[in-house]
Amino acid sequence: MKNNFLKHFRDYNQRLSNTINKIDLDLIYEAASEIETTIKKKKTIYVCGNGGSSAIANHYICDYFKGLGSQTNLKVKIKSLCSDNELISAISNDISHDDIFVFQAEKYLEKGDLLLLISSSGNSNNIKKVLKYANSMKIKSIGFCSFDGGYLKNKCSIAIHSKIDSYGISEDINHILMHLIMHYIKLKNLKKKINNKKIIL
Fold first, then answer.
1. Are 145 and 152 in contact (CB under 8 A)?
2. What would the pLDDT profile of 126-183 be if each residue is shown by its tens digit?
3. pLDDT recorded at residue 191
4. How far is the C-alpha of 165 from the C-alpha of 143, rounded, in Å?
5. Distance CA 155, CA 152 (A)
6. Tell me: the pLDDT tens digits for 62-74?
7. Is 56 exposed, middle or buried (0-12, 13-18, 19+ CB in 10 A)?
8. Which residues does 65 contact at the CB level (< 8 Å), separation at least 6?
9. What CATH number does the domain located at 2-188 have?
């Protein structure tokens, strides 16, 4: 049984490594630059996703608000469109589940803001709908997608596509990219004096 587990571990790790190593680094850098620019312009970043991608969207708030808010002078304005369960259930029940993100976006998004979308398939109806709205308002978007990329890959301002037909590995990669970009921005903007404190990434 242990040999089966070790084989599974190695196979999984290999698939994850092979996939992330094939992602276009120029696009990741472009995404990082767009996020940093949005923060420095004091505009707001909005994040959304479904299921496991919803959890990643919410994790953005923890790491970008707190992570970048310590040891840098950056003041990050960031909001997850997945975090208000009461509001989401009300929109879903009274209007449509397809509208849970776009209904919020219509009230929140302003010129210069940035929309981050996380969707393994790239084809969830609520993701497509909010992206269509963002595009109609000329608001920039960054999409993290897998499989064939779907609608997200074709319609986002910047599309980071990890070509893998696995929801688990897709979500692992999107989580890694979330941390990687945050760490890059943090290191680039470290305070000149950090009082001899250890930099924790």
1. yes
2. 999 999 999 999 999 999 999 999 999 999 999 999 999 999 999 999 999 999 999 9
3. 86
4. 17
5. 5
6. 999 998 988 899 9
7. buried
8. 76, 78
9. 3.40.50.10490
